[in-house]
Amino acid sequence: MLWELFWTFFKLGFVSFGGGYAMLPVIEHEALSHHWMTAEQYTEAITLAGMAPGPIAMNSAVYVGYTASGLIGSIAASLGVILPSAITMLLIATIFYRVYDNQWVQSALDGMKPAVIALIAYTAVNMAMHSGLTAKWTLSSFIPVAIFACALLALMKLKLHPIAVILLSGIVGIVIYG
Predict the structure, then answer these.
(1) How does pLDDT run across 25-70, given as a tens digit for each residue?
(2) Which structural domain, as residue segments, surrounds residue 34?
(3) What predicted TM-score, i.e. pTM, was given to this entire model?
(4) Structural domain count, the chain
């Protein structure tokens, strides 16, 4: 189990582009297909991983690893997700500035950007499906949509800090659901 956690997250870390949020659908697929957690547990994990300090991919690896195999599982998954980036960045740093202005490199990067955005959008839609945002329209399903809309407005228009938005949303949740 530990080797499987390490190797799965090593592969994920090695092929993931665009940061932690772009990795989330792939992490979800692996966590569910290996039966390390349910879809609901994964949605909860991503919520907690997004609130915790540090990169979301690392936080997700810790949570998935812990759910699958306790503390040692979280260590195995964390090492797996970190090592590819460290190895790759060391290699890239040695050659990047030599090829950065190359048209082929720029074209490849331009081609990858929309795919990374699609991966992030996929994660958002998937999380919405497991959080009640896409449930049958009733008063109780309107509440998460209203919280979502207010949080998005607070982030985009009011420029509130993400932590403040998360804390305020938590307070609203306590008031409404508590």
Answers:
(1) 889 999 999 999 999 999 999 989 988 888 888 999 999 999 999 9
(2) 2-102
(3) 0.57
(4) 1
